[in-house]
UniProtKB/TrEMBL annotation:
It is found in: Membrane. Keywords: Membrane, Repeat, Transmembrane, Transmembrane helix. This is Otoferlin-like isoform x2 protein. Its main location: membrane. It comes from Lasius niger (Black garden ant). It comes from the Eukaryota. The keyword Magnesium does not apply. SMART domains: FerB (SM01201). GO terms for cellular component: membrane.
Amino acid sequence: MAPSEVEVEPTVPINETAYARNEEFFLFATIMDATMIDKKLGDKPMYFEISIGNAGNALDGHNESFKMYDPGSRGGMSGDEDDLQEVVAGSWQSTTPSSKPMTHDKIYYFLPYWDDKPCLHVRSTWPDYRRRMYNSNIIGKIVDKMEEGLSEVQLHLEDSTCEKLLKTTLEELSANCNRYVSISKSSVTGPGVGKTKLDKERTKLCQRELENIGIMSRNLKALVTKSSFKERLKTAQSYLQKLKFLVEDPQDSLPDVFIWVISSGRRVAYQRIPGRELIYSVVDEECGRHCGRVQTMFLK
């Protein structure tokens, strides 16, 4: 038998613009209070940890800044290694000082933060896919606003004001959809590099759908009457379902952020927050709903 012949064909050169640029992201949080701590955890010191991906993960050994201050870690570093430690230590302060819970009733416990609130920060580098999160945030806020409007309508179904409320909701929906189209067609939603084919097709889909919903909601407003109210309300609710379908992006952007409570070397409670809910933007509609806001979170 003759040896098999292998044909080698050159591949198409990789287009560097197909990859998103790496950007530095800064995650910051302040723990204002820590209350309602279970009695079984009240007799041991505990602390908080914040992380995004592996950045900030102190307990599992991924946080070099934590190792730097750990008495059990390798010491005596010098030269380039010492410089690296200093750089990384400045990038992360992902854990709070450990403190023992206090109580007034021996049922629920709290951490004595008083006037000194612990601050956490993690500086890390990720591919810049902010436009995906921005896009989802704008549509998500349109959904939230419409849900508020329709809930208000439902509360006044027996009132004479229900028609006016539905018209107002549809008018706001039309304006918000037009605002989305305007923002998404501008250059403020992120750099042009790194867009996949799915990114481009999803952008076209969202623009087309919201433009249509904006037109239909404006037309529907003119058709709202007392006799046709229930039918028009049902149509408005169908618009809401279409918008909800478009909120989540099928592709990844930033990792989720985790807030952990650690006691006796164990993770005892946590809260997981999607990255898009924390992302900042100069455009208000693109900001995450938790960005820059004091939030009450119940840890699991």
